[in-house]
Amino acid sequence: MKLFHAAIFTIGVASSAALAQDVVVVGEVHDNPAHHRVQAEIVREVAPKALVFEMLTSGQADAITPDNRGDPVALAKALDWANSGWPDFSMYYPIIAAAPEARIYGAQVPRDVARAAFGDGIAASFSGDAETYGLTAPLPEAQQSAREAMQMVAHCDALPQEMLPGMVAIQRLRDAELAHAVVQAMQDTGGPVVLITGNGHARKDWGAPSYLERVAPDLELRVIGQSEDDAPLAGEYDEIRPAPAVEREDPCAAFKGSG
């Protein structure tokens, strides 16, 4: 992948100067409907030429056609959303509907690719130039340690210690694939582009935006995270928008003793 500069792109006209960027990254907590409503509002405001979704593979994005795009039931079926593992499609469809002419890109790392990356390494599994995106170099020691600790907490302290480096590597692969899809969308459409992803991938310090800063430093980029009940949000963002938390069962309940 060659480096490129935002000067060759035409910046789309948004209704808000604050969102008049080449790329707007909007994070989420996946199962929070309020976060998805905000995403749909931002997409409507930006009127992007392209939407990039963490939740879709490139193959799923190719299944979106003019015939099924306007019908949420038909589109969910075409995407096999019921077997995707993501929250109900009714949360995500309004985001797509908010930009009816935007080209849709999928940036999810397929499960078989993620499994292969554990054995072959993320550089071999990346769809772009791994060296350009920094995937051939190790993370700084402090960041590696911090990210391994986060993976352990996210998995209820139940992961074998030896799995943690691989889990961090897969997250790096996912971040890089998101950035790579945004780069492709900018090249194809000229932008603006909106990236829909989880807060962890949206963070500026080590998520997808950090890869965009590396490979396309002249892009005008705005990163919006979304918190719950004003709780602190880990990482760096240009803006954080709060929303009420949703009620959830304790995901770690099965690992806790009864005493």
From TrEMBL:
Residues 227-259 are annotated as: Disordered. This is Uncharacterized iron-regulated protein. Residues 18-212 form the Haem-binding uptake Tiki superfamily ChaN domain. Keywords: Signal. The keyword DNA-binding does not apply. Residues 1-20 form the signal peptide. The keyword Repeat does not apply. Residues 238-251 have a biased composition (Basic and acidic residues). Pfam families: Cofac_haem_bdg (PF04187).
